[in-house]
Known about the structure:
This protein is mostly helical. It is about 50% helix and about 10% strand. It has four helices and two strands. It has a two-stranded parallel sheet with strand order 1-2. Helix 2 crosses helix 3. The longest helix is centred in the middle third of the chain and has 20 residues. The radius of gyration is 15 Å and the shape is extended. The two termini are about 30 Å apart. The N terminus is likely disordered.
Amino acid sequence: MKWKVLFISVVMVCAYHSLIFNCGLCSAAGLRSRSPENKAVIVAEVEKNVWPAIAEGKVKPVVYKSFPLSEAAEAHRLMESSQHIGKILLVA
């Protein structure tokens, strides 16, 4: 379980919150200050409630734009500009 705690994504916690409270709002708090025990509980809840929803297509990331890896500098400029809503992907 230790490695799962290390790799938990705030996005997944956010998706869990949206599913549980059926609010469609995604806001999250940092996990860094939480205890390992609390993080383990969050991981278990995400595995139980979020991953099945992702597998069923109920929760999807918002992708703003994809860039080939050769255009990583342009992708980084877009990210720094804060003119996007959603994820910026680098595709190999």
